[in-house]
Design brief:
Elements: H1 15-41, H2 44-50, H3 54-64, H4 72-91, H5 97-120, H6 126-148, H7 151-165, H8 167-192, H9 197-219, H10 225-257
Helix pairs in contact: 1-5, 1-6, 2-9, 3-5, 3-9, 4-10, 6-8, 7-8, 9-10
Length: 258
């Protein structure tokens, strides 16, 4: 639904930029689809705990794909994130492989979306980038949606939902979910234009702190003690990374000023 809000493209696009944006759009579509599959399969808090691994995937891609050197101190600061997510996964009450694997695929997809988006932003601003990748992603999603779901989407998807909550609430909820999802992703893309992909990933993890806490309060998701400890360790690892990263960037700025 949120793809339909991306109708404000104003900057023209050429074939070269389109080639850059198609991989971004594919990663964008795959990341969102697998995120929602994970949300459906496991507790929202658990999906976001798994997605806290995004900085680790981003660091790996930055170093081994883009060739950027990631200091050992930053790698070490990300180890608690991996440890914490592993602990949380072992005793998560809603754990199943569909939810876990879908969240991991989403991590990888969004990592490459960030990297490819950063490359495309050399020729186009972030607002236009996001509008174009959303529209392309819509066309990417339509064929598999028809093939996988087809008539069942109308019969057992829309009709069942409307029968349960009513047509007005169904349309209203779909609209607002699409609107907020779109605005969130637009803001994330605008932020990516101004920061490094790895820093952007860390911001995403801090966001998950609020989402995890809010989902526990609103949905009443029960978590085990070990899951809570693991989530806390993962968040602490992100905080450590943020501190080290900020300190390194400050030293770099001072060096340039000198």
């Amino acid at each position: 639904m949120h793809y339909l809000f991306a109708v404000y493209c104003v900057q023209p696009i050429d074939s070269n930029l389109l080639k850059l944006l198609i991989p971004v759009a594919v990663c964008h579509a795959l990341g969102h689809v697998t995120s929602n599959v994970s949300f459906a399969a496991v507790a929202v808090s658990f999906t976001h705990t798994i997605k806290a691994l995004e900085p680790f995937f981003n660091a790996a891609a930055s170093q081994f794909v883009l060739g950027q050197s990631i200091p050992i101190t930053l790698w070490l600061s990300l180890m608690p994130v991996v440890l914490g997510v592993s602990m949380a996964s072992l005793t998560e009450l809603s754990f199943n492989w569909t939810g876990f694997i879908s969240a991991m695929i989403s991590n990888i997809s969004f990592t490459y979306r960030s990297l490819y988006s950063k490359k495309a932003m050399t020729d186009m601003d972030s607002t236009n980038i996001y509008a174009y990748i959303s529209i392309i992603a819509l066309f990417v999603c339509i064929p598999p949606a028809i093939l996988v779901e087809g008539p069942q989407l109308i019969k057992h998807g829309f009709n069942d939902a409307i029968a349960k909550v009513g047509l007005t609430k169904f349309i209203s909820d779909l609209f607002w979910v699409g609107m907020f999802y779109h605005l969130y992703n637009q803001l994330a893309t605008n932020t990516l234009e101004r920061v490094a992909p790895l820093t952007h990933a860390v911001g995403n993890v801090l966001k998950r702190v609020f989402v995890i806490g809010f989902s526990i309060l609103v949905f009443g998701n029960k978590i085990s003690t070990q899951t809570g400890i693991g989530t806390g360790i993962a968040i602490a690892g992100v905080a450590t990374y943020s501190y080290i990263k900020a300190k390194m960037e400050e030293e770099k700025r001072r060096g340039k000023a000198a």
